[in-house]
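User: Fold this, then the next.

Assistant: Folding the first:
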Amino acid sequence: MYLLVLLAALGLYDGATLSGWQPQGEARWAIEDNHITARGAGDGFLLTEGSYTDFRLHVDFWVDATTNSGVFFRCRDRQRIHQDTCLELNIWDEHPRQEARTGSIVFRAMPPLARVETVGRWNTMDVLAEGPRIEVRVNGQLTAQLDDADPAGGFIALQHWETGTVKFRRLTLDVLED
């Protein structure tokens, strides 16, 4: 059975404030034109207050060419958001190691199964996390797949690293229940 949960309905993103989110680090997160935005210099994350195990996540994102961003999930340590404590879905077309570019699960599913160009336009990222199974689609193309991920739940974190602009909108979460 699927229980549809909209982040706005949960109070995690109401389209006007960052209520339900916890900033961490130096990144400057703001709401601009109903989008969650981080721009300029500064490393940091925007964390959900809730914890999720099995779900379908949909995110619309926009990045410029200079931005290193991502969506981390199943994170368990709020003081150490890292590929060792989370699964990181990279958003960085210009990554110096192209096997870790947009659509990869950093250090776990690289290179991406499909090369998707995302700079300077709105894109979609869809994630299925069900037990040890993870599937990632960027703009409808399967980019990463795991069958042996740690099934433990955790929070979700949006990332802005170094410089540039990243925007997020239409964040929805379908929680999968037995």
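Now the next one, as you asked:
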Amino acid sequence: MTDDLAAVAADAVTAAGDYLAERFETGLDADYTATDVKTAADHEAERRVIERVRAAYPDHPITAEESGHHDGDGQYRWVVDALDGTNNFAAGVPTFGSVATAVDEAGPATTAVHVPVLDDLYVATRDGGVTHNGTEVAATDGDSVPLSHATVGTLIGPDVIHSEARMDEFDAVADSVETECKRVIRCWAPVVYFGLLARGRLDGFVCFHPPEREQVAGDLLAREAGCVERTAGALTVFGRDEDLTERLWTAAVDAL
């Protein structure tokens, strides 16, 4: 079943990604608010994802960033962010992706991420590993560097962005982690960087009050790529090995 889900997820995000790549080249129409930015491309890309999921699984519920919840009584619920990295997209920065994840009572079952400008396609299935453009990958595939030379991604959710107190907490976490490693990336398109983590291009990831649409995809990519995980409450840390993860975890917890 998960293979069928993965095929539909990959087809859906590729359709959205192909559209986004074309729109990225031809021009944008962004609508800026005090705290966010949206484009017509968000809605059209999401329509393409939902259309393909519904065609394959008309009874599956869908939770989509732009259009909200779509009812259904199927075994799996789809979590969709058809344009992760809208700020980058609107600013002309080519770091953005499209993601669709099928979840059940046990958590994320399969996810697919398409990074249009690079034409990268990541697919992860529960207990089935991760592929990048059809080739199996793992978090240990990259160069094994000491933590002092490591690059670490971060993910925060709207609950942090809209709360001065939580933003202060995250700033403290990021500063503490940065004292341990070479670089901390404050990701504006987290699923893109989770893909890089899954094939060893990043060394770790720190998540603080993450939104579901990005976290379910990131969790599955990291776990199936063999990352070590530490989590408590709203804080989750992934690393390519036990020692790196433990040191990142300690740095993050000590800051809170």
